[in-house]
């Protein structure tokens, strides 16, 4: 490792932390050993490339054993501590955003003044970013370079090919990052959806071609690596929601992730086919809809009713999509549960559908929310309550992981975007798929991908900071 040279000064060892021309490094500051708060760095030839800059919610700012009941050290919105790269921002050649989910883009507006690098993203992510800037009043001079899905850009010593993939948001991109020292396939969030509601179906041939390039490492999403088989399509979810909602006699409220525009389109179609009017509750939902319309993703034949009108309709004509599937105290769903939403009052036998997973750590918030609905005798349907796929994940199960590893044929597998059990399961899938080497680590560990693969633990002190939202 010629670029990491140690020198003894007294009892301390000082290292040159800059990658050389023969080096290809991967350094996650967030999103490795956890789900959310993604912030990744790639190092080569004395320069760094940042991939994604996201947030997490309601987590300890320090490890649990350092927090006490009197001082839990939590904050509602948090980001990875960027100190390592912000202290040498002259070496940060670019920030690349793979897609517009909050755990990939949500911290950028707040951290960018400390980073000051140009931002590359697709048009939809750019629209979301500009809306965040307008609301916050921060980072108004952020240079945003729009890259079309499937495009190419050169950022310092990094050549980046953007590869369209399927996920639960418009324009999700995987990245092929090419340097003189090697090539990384960074999957970001993905699944293999043969029938998405929005965008094109997954195309295996695009990724099979990567095998001919000799990919050094595949840095891969581990979210569903503990699940066997294959994830279901968004079309299957649409059909399940229609089957549940069409025979309902009362009001129906569906809560899910606001960024899943395909799910919103599905519910718009369900409203049309069940004789209901569709309204959206929640600032995040309305903002995503505005961005989808601006970028041409919302079908013009799906009407929406003003939120203020929905409470005057007969119960059997009401379909609401509300934010707050994770039990967030300030979200629309909690306001409905507590009879304090200004536009709608739920009554006995109305139906609330959770079209979302329960993110680890949110169990208590969601349980309390459901108890409030049940106390009002409002029916609640969660994914675990039915065999129908009223929610489908945007991430790959083991079957998809296995296929993608066999398509790409990387020399090294680097599981990320998961807790330790998820990443271990991902590594085992890679091993069985014939990937010669698997590297496992955590935030702050340095993954040396070239010239010789290894993982240097605790290379950087990784942490979290609270940000305003």
UniProtKB/TrEMBL annotation:
Give all residue intervals belonging to the Metallo-beta-lactamase domain: 36-241
The molecular function GO annotations come to: hydrolase activity
Keywords linked to the UniProt accession: Exonuclease, Hydrolase, Metal-binding, Nuclease, RNA-binding, Zinc
Q: Where is the signal peptide?
A: none
Q: Which InterPro entries match?
A: Metallo-B-lactamas, RibonucZ/Hydroxyglut_hydro, RMMBL, RNase_J_2, RNase_J_b_CASP
What is the name listed in the Swiss-Prot or TrEMBL entry for this protein? MBL fold hydrolase
